[in-house]
Recover the amino acids of this structure.
C-alpha cells in the first residue's frame, strides 16, 4: 500500500514508489501494531498512560511494507510481514498491522507482550482498535486475503515441502496491499525465489504472466508453482542488472530483438491476449479518445501558471489534433499488426542477463501498435544513459528491421519517422485516461502539457524528415 496522493502534496508515483519531488527527505510516522501470531498478543513499549505502540518513521518515497519490516528488523531483530495498512486520520498518524513470522528470538529493546485491550486508549481510535481485533480474528475480509495472521504459514505450506519453523527461509517483504503481496524467500544456501500475488485492479497480471512465461520461457522468470485461488505464483530469481543501468548497446539490441519476437508470435493471437485481460490501446482506441482528451488538454493549457514553457493555444491544439489524426491513418494502415505491448517497460522491468533479456512485471499489458511500446523503452533508456540517448536512431532502426517482412520499405520508413510522435502522445493519453477516475484528475495536467509539447516537436521533426 502506498501513501495516498491526497494526503501528501506534490507527490508523484514513480517506479512503484511514492516520490516527493520537492523534498525527498520528507518522512512520515507510523504506529505499528506488532502481533505475536501464536499468543495473539501485541508487542508494545511501556508508557506513562499504559503500553504504547511501536513507532517507526519512514521516507514517503518508499514502499510502506518494505520500509516498516526492515526498520523493525534492524531495531528489534524480528522478522515480520505487514498484514494491513489502516487508513490515515487527521489527528492520528498512520497505522500499520504487522505479524512476527518464523522462530521468535528473545525480545529486545524493552518490548512488552500485552493484550490488545491493554494498549493505551490514546494509541488507537475506536475504529482502528475494532479493525485490529477483526484482523487478529481473521475477519477483516475487506482488507484482503493477507490481512490475517498466519497467511504466510499458509503460503509456505502451499509452496514448500515442509513447515518446520526452523527450516523456514529468510523472508523479506517488498510490498503488500489488498489481496496483493510481494515476498522474496531465501534459503540457507542463498538460493532465492519470489512470491507474488495480485488483487484488483491487477488480477489480470496472474493469467497474463502465467501464459507469457509458458510461451516465452527464455524471456520471463521461470514459474515454479501457482496458487490460482490467490492469483499468486512462485518464480525463480533472475541474476542480472536492469537494462537501464547497463552501458551495452548489444544488450539493448538483444532486448529489442526479444521484444519483437514475442510481439510477432502473438500478433496472430491478440484476441487471446484480450481474453486474458490485456488492455486495449489499439490505434482505433487511441482515435476514440481524441475528442475528450483534447477538451481536457485545452483546460490544462489554460490553467498553466508556469512561464518556463509557453502553453499551446486553442488554435495550436486544434491544428495538432488534425495533424495527429492524419498521421495516425498512415501509422495504423502501413501494415504492422497490433500485438503485445508492455505498458511499463521502462523503470528496470527488463533485466540484462548472460542468457539474454528477461522481462518483469506484466501488470500493465496492452494490445496496440508494437512501435509505441518500443518508443517508451527508448525514452526511458535515453533518460538513463547518454550512450543510449546518442544511439536512439540506431536502436530504432534495429527494431524496425525486425518488421521488414510485414511492410514495404517506404511504409516502414514512415512508421520509423512517426513512432516518436505517437510514443510521446500515447504516453500522455494513457496518463490522462488513468487520471480520470482519481479524486483530482488535474494532477495529470503538467504531464499532459509536457507530452503535447514534445508531441508537436516530434511531429515537426517527422515532417522535416519525410520532406
Amino acid at each position: 500500500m502506498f501513501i495516498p496522493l491526497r494526503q501528501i502534496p506534490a507527490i508523484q508515483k514513480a517506479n512503484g514508489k511514492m516520490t516527493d519531488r520537492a523534498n525527498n527527505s520528507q518522512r512520515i510516522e507510523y504506529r505499528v501494531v506488532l502481533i505475536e501470531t501464536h499468543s495473539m498478543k501485541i508487542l508494545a513499549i511501556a508508557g506513562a498512560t499504559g503500553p504504547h505502540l511501536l513507532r517507526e518513521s519512514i521516507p514517503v518515497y518508499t514502499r510502506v511494507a518494505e520500509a516498516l519490516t526492515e526498520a523493525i528488523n534492524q531495531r528489534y531483530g524480528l522478522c515480520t510481514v505487514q498484514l494491513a495498512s489502516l487508513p490515515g486520520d487527521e489527528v492520528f498518524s498512520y497505522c500499520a498491522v504487522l505479524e512476527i513470522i518464523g522462530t521468535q528470538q528473545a525480545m529486545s529493546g524493552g518490548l512488552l507482550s500485552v493484550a490488545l485491550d491493554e494498549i493505551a486508549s490514546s494509541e488507537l481510535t475506536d475504529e482502528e482498535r475494532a479493525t485490529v481485533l477483526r484482523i487478529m480474528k481473521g475477519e477483516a475480509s475487506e482488507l484482503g486475503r493477507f490481512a490475517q495472521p498466519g497467511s504466510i504459514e499458509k503460503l509456505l505450506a502451499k509452496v514448500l515441502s515442509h513447515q518446520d519453523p526452523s527450516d523456514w527461509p529468510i523472508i523479506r517483504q517488498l510490498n503488500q496491499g489488498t489481496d496483493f503481496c510481494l515476498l522474496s524467500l531465501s534459503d540457507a544456501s542463498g538460493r532465492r525465489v519470489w512470491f507474488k500475488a495480485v488483487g484488483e485492479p491487477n488480477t489480470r497480471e496472474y493469467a497474463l504472466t502465467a501464459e507469457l512465461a509458458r510461451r516465452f520461457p527464455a524471456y520471463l522468470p521461470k514459474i515454479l508453482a501457482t496458487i490460482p485461488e490467490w492469483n499468486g505464483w512462485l518464480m525463480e530469481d533472475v541474476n542480472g542488472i536492469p537494462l537501464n543501468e547497463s552501458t551495452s548497446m548489444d544488450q539493448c539490441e538483444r532486448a529489442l530483438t526479444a521484444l519483437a519476437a514475442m510481439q510477432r508470435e502473438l500478433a496472430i493471437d491478440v484476441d487471446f491476449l484480450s481474453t486474458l485481460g490485456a488492455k486495449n490501446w489499439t490505434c482505433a482506441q487511441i482515435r476514440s479518445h481524441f475528442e475528450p482528451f483534447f477538451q481536457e488538454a485545452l483546460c490544462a493549457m489554460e490553467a498553466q501558471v508556469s512561464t518556463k514553457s509557453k502553453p499551446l493555444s486553442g488554435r495550436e491544439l486544434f491544428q495538432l489534433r488534425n495533424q495527429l489524426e492524419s498521421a495516425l491513418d498512415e501509422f495504423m494502415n502501413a501494415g504492422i499488426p497490433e500485438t503485445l505491448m508492455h505498458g511499463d517497460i521502462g523503470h528496470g522491468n527488463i533485466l540484462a542477463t548472460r542468457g539474454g533479456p528477461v522481462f518483469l512485471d506484466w501488470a500493465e499489458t496492452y494490445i496496440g501498435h508494437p512501435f509505441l511500446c518500443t518508443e517508451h523503452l527508448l525514452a526511458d533508456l535515453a533518460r538513463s544513459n547518454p550512450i543510449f540517448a546518442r544511439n536512439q536512431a540506431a536502436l530504432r532502426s534495429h527494431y524496425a528491421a525486425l518488421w521488414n517482412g510485414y511492410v514495404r520499405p517506404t511504409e516502414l520508413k514512415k512508421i520509423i519517422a512517426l513512432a516518436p510522435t505517437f510514443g510521446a502522445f500515447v504516453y500522455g493519453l494513457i496518463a490522462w485516461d488513468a487520471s480520470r477516475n482519481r479524486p483530482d484528475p488535474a494532477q495529470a495536467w503538467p504531464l499532459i502539457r509536457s507530452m503535447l509539447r514534445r508531441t508537436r516537436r516530434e511531429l515537426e521533426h517527422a515532417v522535416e524528415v519525410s520532406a
Observations:
- The longest helix spans residues 409-435.
